[in-house]
Design goal:
D-Maltodextrin-Binding Protein, domain 2, alpha/beta
Length: 276
């Protein structure tokens, strides 16, 4: 499990203020979600549950959901561009670790400035974990409401393990060596296969840094900062992590190196994982 909570932030940027019920307001929401596509459940929830309930309670407010089907990095770039010109949605969702960058760029206002000081006394904060709340805070002010969090796991194909002579029901890897040995066993019976996907390459953006390299580095027992909060730029853990990538993609070709360079490489890896 990663010690990083991936909590998207609902960042309100320049939201239109209401002086009273006499003023009609158009409110726009943008999320990386498309009904029938990426994050379909989220899009359906907002469109079919959140918006109708909100509009029923606020008759003078019209809410529109802008469904964005691109990658996370594309949405981040679009939001930064829109906000810099005074445009963009009133409410959106993005990874919490981006909040400081948006704030420093003058693109995000604290919630108590947008919605009022009562934000800090909101009873809902108590229902949220300390870690997820902390991701929404920058310089002692809240900039969003955590939408969720996630963890990282090793996903395996039991049928592939069984075909490689591994007991898939009792297997419980405890080291990198165990994972690599299983991949090698699969590669032996399926020479044209790529048994391991460890996110790599610039095209995968945040998936490479936070869901690939970062987790592999944590597996060495190290992290990115030293005891003084300074960035570690050279260590045994960093070398071990880079060598792990080298083993997978260069030396033994246990992973598909070309896919790491493609814009849709990560999505391809998901599709390949489900193929028989």
């Amino acid at each position: 499990m990663s010690n990083r909570l991936r909590a998207p932030a609902f960042g309100l940027v320049g939201a239109t203020a209401m002086a009273g019920p006499a003023f009609a307001v158009d409110l726009e929401i943008t999320c990386r979600c498309v009904i029938g596509g990426v994050n379909s459940g989220t899009a359906e929830w907002i469109q079919n549950s959140v918006i109708p309930a909100f509009e029923a309670a606020n008759a003078d407010i019209k809410v529109t959901l802008n469904q964005f089907g691109g990658e996370d990095a594309q949405l981040t770039q679009q939001l930064a561009l829109d906000f810099s010109t005074g445009a963009g949605p009133d409410v959106t969702a993005f990874d919490g670790f981006l909040i400081p960058s948006f704030v420093e760029g003058g693109l995000l206002k604290p919630l108590n400035e947008v919605a009022g000081p009562e934000v800090d006394d909101w009873s809902g904060w108590a229902a949220l974990s300390e870690g997820s709340r902390a991701l929404m805070i920058y310089e002692e002010q809240y900039y969003g409401i955590p939408l969720g969090t996630d963890v990282r796991m090793l996903y395996t194909r039991k049928d592939m393990l069984t075909e490689a002579g591994i007991d898939a029901e009792t297997r419980q890897p405890t080291s990198r060596a165990d994972i690599l040995d299983a991949a090698r066993a699969i590669k032996k019976v399926k020479p044209d296969s790529f048994p391991i996907q460890l996110n790599a390459g610039v095209a995968m953006g945040e998936a490479t840094t936070m869901q690939g390299y970062w987790l592999a580095l944590l597996g060495t027992g190290e992290t990115v900062l030293d005891e003084n909060g300074k960035w570690i730029v050279g260590s045994r853990g960093i070398l071990d992590t880079l060598n792990l990538y080298k083993t997978i993609y260069v030396d033994e070709q246990l992973g598909d190196a070309r896919a790491q360079l493609l814009a849709d490489g990560r999505n391809r890896s998901f599709a390949n994982f489900t193929m028989a």
